[in-house]
Automatic annotation (TrEMBL):
Gene3D superfamilies: Mannose-Binding Protein A, subunit A. Pfam families: Lectin_C. The lineage of its organism: Eukaryota, Metazoa, Chordata, Craniata, Vertebrata. PROSITE patterns: C_TYPE_LECTIN_2. This is IDD protein. It comes from Baryphthengus martii (Rufous motmot).
Length: 254
């Protein structure tokens, strides 16, 4: 409570101990489980980010790995619908039409028979991926080479709100050396009050409204939290608490 009278209690030696309680820990909802620029989906406890600078498939793979992720694969229709419904940051230069955006994702199309229909099948690009669903038959890209037996997957999304919210999309099998935007996926993580990523097992102050919380990062969630209680600033009647620094105040007295 903000304005609590001084409380007195009798210490061991009979001396008077004074307590000035400034803030009391309250239940906090931790809404940020992804770094800035990433979108969180509770259903898979994952974070997603579209990189709009054009890279070929193999460079896109490395970019995702550098941020502890991989090119996105999907476990269920609900996850795909979440991706299609997002409004991704569109400020950077892109390599496709503004209303129709295509992203590299973590699938490859293996051609088994080069007849008129290009028979083949989808595979997950990374054998260690969790259980995923595979795309339907693709639309084949225009930059195909006759010598290529493996094509890479692009998911086409639409920016028009009506099309986006109806989940309209297409799957393309494209030459892997074409440049395209791409979609990375990584596990949710702990993000502290200053937007820094926190490693597993470390202490941190989670995003929220209490800068005096200290929690342990466990599986991307803050757990075993403890709160500090601050003594009110001396000789100051009106003050403001710093929203990001524990026990730091600004005196508002004249």
């Amino acid at each position: 409570k903000e304005n609590v009278d001084s409380r007195h209690s009798r210490g061991r030696g009979g001396e008077t101990t004074r307590f000035h309680t400034v803030n009391v820990a309250q239940p906090v909802r931790f809404s940020r489980k992804c770094p800035t620029g990433w979108h969180h989906y509770e259903g898979t406890a994952s974070c997603y980010r579209v990189y709009l600078n054009g890279e070929n498939y193999w460079d896109a793979v490395q970019t995702c790995q550098r941020v502890n992720g991989s090119l996105a694969t999907f476990t269920a229709d609900q996850e795909l619908r979440f991706i299609l419904a997002q409004e991704w940051d569109l400020e950077e230069k892109t390599f496709v039409r503004k209303d129709q955006r295509r992203f590299w994702v973590g699938y490859q199309y293996v051609i088994t028979n080069r007849n008129h229909s290009l028979e083949g099948h989808w595979e997950v690009a990374y054998k260690g991926s969790s259980e995923v669903f595979l795309p339907p038959d693709p639309i084949f890209g225009t930059a195909m080479s006759e010598n290529e037996n493996v094509l890479c997957a692009q998911l086409q999304c639409f920016d028009f709100p009506t099309l986006r919210h109806h989940g309209l999309h297409s799957w393309y099998a494209e030459n892997c050396y074409e440049k395209s935007s791409f979609l990375c996926k990584r596990s949710q993580t702990c993000v502290d009050i200053k937007d820094n990523i926190v490693d597993e097992g470390y202490y941190f102050t989670p995003k929220g409204n209490d800068p005096c919380l200290s929690c342990t990062c466990h599986n991307g969630e803050p757990e075993m939290c403890v709160a500090a209680l601050c003594e009110r600033p001396q000789g100051c009647q009106q003050y403001r608490k710093d929203p990001k620094e524990c026990c730091k105040f600004t005196c508002l007295d004249p």
